[in-house]
Design a protein that fits this description.
This is 3-oxoadipate enol-lactonase. It is an enzyme of class 3 (hydrolase). The protein is of the alpha/beta class and 264 residues long. The longest helix has 14 residues. It is globular. The structure holds the ligand O=C(O)CCC(=O)CC(=O)O.
């Protein structure tokens, strides 16, 4: 675990694996921190130099005052990779992390060799929806809407109080800072990457849980159709966060795709 001040914000991050191995970078979703990737990364093994980080306002990263712009998150990730001396990487992004990845691939195509977009889209939700969420989180706190969020994140089979992992991920969500959550809602609200994503030319895999209540399969499929040659895969028995609910299947899809893309 390490901290670095980049792009004017302190980011918590971790680098695992051999410095000479191909870099594989993970960007997480709204209301989560980088621990959501732990099982996927363990399953992928030692093939890659893994970079995990908490975006601003999440996990142990600094929570600058809301609102944020998508470009803040994109520039943070770019600055972190620069700080780590990484000149080429494959990137995996979940939901808002996928928007960050699409934004980085558009801004610095030279830096990104391949991308995996998990449960994300070129545009997520409507301004009305995000404004209502920002109002609720700032006036009543995240816990006031956590049940609804968790219904979109996880399948009914996973959402059991006796499932210790579910209780843990609920704590991860509710402990997210209000600035981080509301600030990132504003960034998602204002991001429409349709045209820049349509122009991307790189190997791409789009993955979605069959029961994703936040970015449903049809939405993720429509994003994959924007990107020439992109593959689209559905993971059965998962909601919005397959890397937590179905880590082995998620890791298999990512590993096979990166092999085929020659990133090994
Ligand atoms: O998960 C994200 O990064 C944004 C999509 C979302 O709204 C998730 C949720 O339903 O809470």
């Amino acid at each position: 675990m390490a901290f670095a001040r980049v792009n004017g914000v302190v980011l918590h991050h971790e680098v695992r694996g051999d410095a000479g191995a191909p870099a594989l970078v993970f960007s997480n979703s709204l209301g989560t921190d980088f621990r959501i990737w732990n099982e996927v990364v363990d399953t992928l093994g030692k093939r890659y130099r893994i970079v995990l980080y908490d975006k601003r306002g999440h996990g142990l990263s600094e929570a600058t005052p809301a609102p944020y712009r998508m470009m803040d998150h994109v520039a943070d990730l770019f600055a972190l990779l620069d700080h780590l001396g990484i000149e080429k990487a494959a990137v995996v992004g979940l939901s808002v992390g996928g928007l960050i990845v699409q934004g980085l691939a558009a801004m610095r195509p030279d830096l990104i060799s391949a991308m995996v977009l998990c449960d994300t889209a070129h545009k997520i939700g409507t301004a009305e929806m995000w404004n209502a969420r920002i109002d609720t989180v700032t006036s009543k706190g995240i816990a006031s809407m956590s049940d609804a969020i968790l219904e979109r994140w996880f399948t009914p089979a996973y959402r059991k109080p006796e499932n210790a992992d579910f209780v843990g991920y609920t704590a991860m969500l509710t402990r997210t800072t209000v600035d981080g959550y509301a600030g990132t809602c504003a960034a998602i609200r204002d991001a429409d990457l349709t045209e820049s994503t349509r122009a991307l030319k790189l190997p791409a895999l789009c993955i979605v849980g069959d029961q994703d209540g936040s970015t449903p399969p049809d939405l993720v499929r429509s994003t994959s159709q924007l990107i020439e040659g992109a593959r689209f895969e559905i993971i059965e028995g998962a909601g919005h966060i397959p890397c937590v609910e179905k880590p082995a299947e998620t890791a298999r899809l990512i590993g096979d795709f990166l092999n085929e893309a020659g990133w090994r």
